[in-house]
């Protein structure tokens, strides 16, 4: 059996091709850089992929909803070639009556124990620096994904043909891609760059946000295609003739209600006299 390797990828995503992999969390880069045995495989500007035989400490876990959903400057950590080829299936509520958590040395040990006990599912969680494990064949009771954080069950499965639950939650996960960007924007909100450098974002309702009405003022976070960024949002407060407090954003359109003396109000717009 080939040794298990932990792969760290920086927030600017880099494809890492491996036979099998299992996401184990989003972590502070300072902790990752201190892990012994790291070697940089890729270093393009600020984008990196690092390999190590040791995982980072669990008490440095950063909450995130999806493995592709980790904010700059945190790193996504993936266990490659996991024993039993377990695949990550999100973070979920535990099913009732499946037993007690047992302390293990790592996620990798949990997978080995679940294969040995002939269980198709592995639940793991971080409790401070400690990793805990439950092996079972029971799926979560409800399709309600949780934010992957401390003391939150990470679910992994090794079915050759995924169960109806796995198929169902994978479909809903794809649907949520349009509702949640990088694991932090709920349905109805858009991840918008906070500045032109595109390094940070905030979740905005572009249908009602007065300073970013209709679209993201500095473009949508993570969208590199220039054509996709042509539709920029409008800061309604900067429109000519609009008085302070005299404009709103309604359904992605600036609607004025008060104009200065040099402008007249016409159908929600301040027009020069």
UniProtKB/TrEMBL annotation:
<dbReference type="InterPro" id="IPR038955">
    <property type="entry name" value="PriA/CPL1_fungi"/>
</dbReference>
<dbReference type="InterPro" id="IPR048661">
    <property type="entry name" value="CPL1-like"/>
</dbReference>
<protein>
    <recommendedName>
        <fullName>Protein CPL1-like domain-containing protein</fullName>
    </recommendedName>
</protein>
<feature type="signal peptide">
    <location>
        <begin position="1"/>
        <end position="20"/>
    </location>
</feature>
<feature type="domain" description="Protein CPL1-like">
    <location>
        <begin position="201"/>
        <end position="265"/>
    </location>
</feature>
<keyword id="KW-0732">Signal</keyword>
<dbReference type="Pfam" id="PF21671">
    <property type="entry name" value="CPL1-like"/>
</dbReference>
């Amino acid at each position: 059996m080939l040794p298990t390797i932990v792969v760290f990828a920086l927030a600017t995503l880099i494809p890492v091709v491996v036979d099998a992999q299992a996401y184990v969390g989003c972590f502070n880069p300072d902790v990752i850089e201190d892990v012994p045995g790291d070697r940089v495989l890729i270093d393009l500007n600020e984008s990196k992929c690092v390999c190590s035989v040791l995982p980072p400490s669990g008490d440095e876990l950063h909450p995130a909803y999806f493995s592709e959903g980790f904010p700059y400057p945190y790193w996504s950590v993936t266990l490659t070639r996991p024993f039993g080829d377990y695949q990550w299936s999100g973070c979920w509520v535990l099913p009732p009556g499946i037993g007690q958590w047992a302390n293990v040395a790592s996620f990798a040990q949990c997978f080995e124990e679940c294969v040995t006990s002939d269980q198709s599912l592995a639940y793991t969680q971080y409790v401070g620096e400690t990793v805990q494990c439950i092996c079972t064949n029971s799926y979560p009771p409800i399709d309600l994904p949780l934010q992957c954080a401390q003391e939150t069950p990470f679910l992994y499965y090794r079915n050759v043909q995924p169960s109806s639950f796995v198929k169902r939650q994978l479909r809903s996960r794809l649907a949520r891609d349009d509702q949640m960007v990088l694991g932090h924007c709920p349905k109805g909100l858009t991840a918008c760059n906070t500045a032109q450098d595109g390094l940070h974002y905030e979740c905005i309702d572009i249908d009602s946000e007065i300073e970013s009405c209709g679209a993201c003022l500095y473009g949508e976070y993570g969208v590199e295609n220039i054509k996709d960024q042509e539709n920029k949002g409008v800061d309604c407060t900067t429109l000519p003739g609009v008085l302070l407090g005299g404009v709103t954003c309604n359904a992605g359109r600036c609607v004025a209600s008060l104009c200065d003396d040099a402008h007249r109000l016409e159908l929600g717009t301040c027009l020069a006299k």
